[in-house]
Amino acid sequence: MSSASARPLRVDRPPDLRARLYRFGALFGAGFRRWSTYRQAALAGLFTNIVFGVMIYSLLRALSTDGRRPGGYDSAQLATYVWVGQGILSVVHVWTWNELADRIRSGDVTADLLRPIDPFEAFLAADLGRAAYAVLARMVVPVVAGGLMFTVYIPHRPHTVPLFALSLVLGTVLSFALRYLVNLGAFWLLDARGLGAVWLLASGVFAGTFFPLRFLPDWAQAVLWFGTPFPGLFQIPLDVVVERPGSTQQVGSVVLQFLWVAILVPLVLRVQRAATDKLVIQGG
Fold first, then answer.
1. How many CA atoms lie within 13 A of 107 on its CB side?
2. Mean pLDDT per 10-residue interval, the chain, length 284 residues
3. CA–CA distance from 59 to each of 63, 111, 147, 223 (Å)?
4. What's the angle, vertex CA 107, arms to CA 106 and CA 112, rounded to 5?
5. What does the alpha-carbon distance between residue 142 and residue 186 come to, in Å, rounded to a whole number?
6. Residue 81 and residue 274: Cα distance in Å, rounded?
7. Nearest-CA neighbor of 23 among 100, 119, 133?
8. Which residue of 4, 153, 175, 196 has the smallest Cβ count within 10 Å?
9. pTM for this entry
């Protein structure tokens, strides 16, 4: 193991916006094609999502008997929450991602720093391509299956569907920024698996993937919504699609996602710059 200053590795990015967009689009397409090759894994994931959807909704539906509205959701809204949630799990992808950490540990990240596109942009483009494929391969079928088996809530506000699409994109960007930040810890720790385990637990509990955050006391919801970005990964897109809040709160929730993106992306770039001031390169 040896240490080397990374300052000479920084190169000026070309100012041509068209070239930058072209590279981003090419990497987006590469991410889409890469994940589209795993067809058997997609089918297995669909089966798992449908089975878990039935189990989770059966449990939550028991809470909404006798006219009760747990968390303010009726039974149809809970059905939509569960089935759309099963669909977007693989889109937002809060699960552990360690590709950057592995490249840091092996030293391959030095090649990423020499390329004419920032590593964060490159990995983000590929991840958005993965998310686009997941919308087609992993989201549509569970939603349709849930609609065939149970009574689901159909959004009736005209702005809900486009607002949900925007919220889902923002949730995916938030998820990636947080996963990338966790991976950057490998610059200092070399092995980021511990951070990845913490991220996996925190994202599951605080994002609403295990249970709707609306079940929590009001003070806990306020702390999570305004003190952390986690609700923006999963809970906010689902609240938007089930129209759980009013129209003003729908828009306000998406604006909150925008604010967290505006905070996290510069933070990630700042941490990356601080990390590359001194690289620890495995393997010489």
1. 9
2. 44 64 88 87 86 88 76 87 91 85 86 87 94 91 89 90 95 95 88 86 88 90 93 94 86 95 96 79 50
3. 7, 49, 17, 27
4. 120
5. 36
6. 40
7. 119
8. 4
9. 0.87
